[in-house]
Specification:
By secondary structure, the protein is mostly helical. The chain has one domain: Cytidine Deaminase, domain 2 (3-Layer(aba) Sandwich), CATH 3.40.140. Helix content is 40%, strand content 5%. A hairpin with a 5-residue loop joins strand 1 (153-157) and strand 2. Helix 5 (78-97) packs parallel to helix 14 (394-411) and helix 10 (300-323) runs antiparallel to helix 12. The protein is globular and about 70 Å long. The N and C termini lie far apart (93 Å).
Length: 420
């Protein structure tokens, strides 16, 4: 037998043994996996959503198609989509009004937001980047361009179509990773406990105060919610969340929580089931808000923001690979400080400071002023309860949204509670 044959035979035996070992290991793992998939562990096996979803793949757990058909069938109505788009356009206009891309401060260089340089100061050095600055300052209305942050915000709307308030992400302002827009907004809603106002938050659940249940409130947010905000909204009982853009680093956690939420029927103080306007049981708390992507309401900006974000991330990563090792190579960076290393972080918060993102938000914001509702949609109400005269028509929602922006432009601030 030649040496070549001996080598080949050794290789064959070694390869066969390795393959057999791998197959054995895979078989054992598959067997163990099959056993683990039989049922949830004791204690969890009484939770119906877990039992029903225990054997499903991740792709199934993030798919909310059937849930939307069940819990938000009204999305199939063009007038409902019109109503949601009105508030999305308002949110975009508020973000543009309070736009601040100074994630790393107003000094330094942001190659991807050159259109936001404070033009009157261009002859001076160093140049500054425009932050939250109004077009007509004066008196008590002063410009605030030293704010550090980015552009993630949300608004809350009650079941009648009345706008409650708006808020922004303030992580950088408070040097915290927990000051997200949705979490801040939910805390704001609960702080209204002692405020006598005209908006409602749904029927009482058990003996809890009326404010404790927000099951008639919709939050509109510019970015898909993270685990923290999804959890806070779930505990608060927020009915649904409509988001303008995917967060590709949030792992679809809102969808997963929605599919796994244990939503038993709520009962009042007498033990009777609480029914909604359709006569269906109102879920008890905790639950999870219905996650509605902008694409579900045919919001054009949803795809534009997602596509632009992917391009931004791809370009930043490529630029870092090409130039990031040398601090003098800054081409393609998000931020270049006067001293120190350039920022090649492809995070979505950086994208939401760029000129590209601003232009998409500006285009969406402009639609609030130019929108003309179809006659079939103009006088439409949701949920069309003839016994509830407080529900606004779509045209009234549009008028209220425009009026709210005028108020916010004059009286609003990025981080403070606002009038009702």
């Amino acid at each position: 037998m030649s040496d070549d044959n001996q080598v080949n035979r050794r290789d064959f035996i070694a390869g066969t043994t390795a393959a057999a070992s791998a197959a054995s290991a895979l078989g054992a793992a598959a067997s163990a996996s099959a056993q683990s998939l039989l049922a949830p562990p004791p204690g969890f096996d009484t939770q119906v959503p877990l039992v029903e979803n225990w054997n499903r793949q991740l792709g199934d757990l993030v798919d909310v198609t059937s849930g939307l058909r069940r819990d938000a069938p009204e999305l199939g109505h063009p007038a409902v989509r019109d109503r949601h788009r009105i508030f999305c356009y308002l949110l975009m206009k508020l973000i543009v009004r309070f736009w601040n891309g100074n994630k790393r401060g107003p000094l330094g260089t942001y190659p991807l937001r050159q259109a936001q340089i404070d033009r009157p100061q261009l002859p001076e050095r160093p140049q500054r980047y425009r932050g939250d600055m109004m077009s007509n300052p004066g008196g008590l209305r002063v410009n605030w361009d030293r704010y550090l942050g980015h552009n993630i915000a949300c608004i809350a709307v009650d079941g009648n179509g009345e706008i409650i308030d708006f808020d922004f992400n303030h992580n950088d302002f408070f040097r915290s990773s927990a000051e997200h827009a949705e979490s801040r907004m939910v805390r704001r809603l609960f702080s209204l406990t002692d405020v006598f106002d005209g908006w409602k938050t749904g029927r009482k659940v058990s003996d809890k105060p009326h404010i404790a249940s927000l099951n008639d409130v919709t939050l509109y947010t510019s970015l898909e919610s993270c685990a923290q905000c999804s959890g806070v909204m779930s505990l608060a009982g927020v009915r649904q969340i409509i988001y303008l853009q995917n967060d590709f680093t949030a792992y679809k956690i809102g969808n997963i929580m929605y599919n796994l939420a244990n939503r038993g029927a709520g009962v009042d103080s007498r033990g009777d089931a609480i029914l909604d306007w359709q006569g269906k049981p109102v879920p008890s708390l905790p639950g999870a808000p219905i996650p509605i992507a902008g694409s579900e309401i045919q919001l054009d900006e949803f795809k534009k923001l997602n596509d632009a974000n992917l391009v931004f991330a791809r370009n930043i990563i490529a630029a870092k690979a090409a130039n990031g090792k040398d601090p003098t190579d800054v081409e393609g960076a998000f931020f270049v400080p006067d001293r120190g290393r350039p920022d090649f972080d492809p995070s979505i918060t950086s994208f939401l400071c760029t000129d590209v993102a601003l232009k998409i938000f500006q285009d969406g914001a402009a639609k609030l002023d130019t929108l003309n509702l179809d006659p079939a949609s103009r006088d439409w109400k949701f949920p069309n309860r003839p016994d509830n005269k407080d529900i606004l028509t779509n045209q009234e929602c549009l008028d209220k949204a425009r009026a709210f922006f005028v108020y916010a432009d004059t009286e609003g601030y990025r981080g403070s509670p606002h009038k009702l």
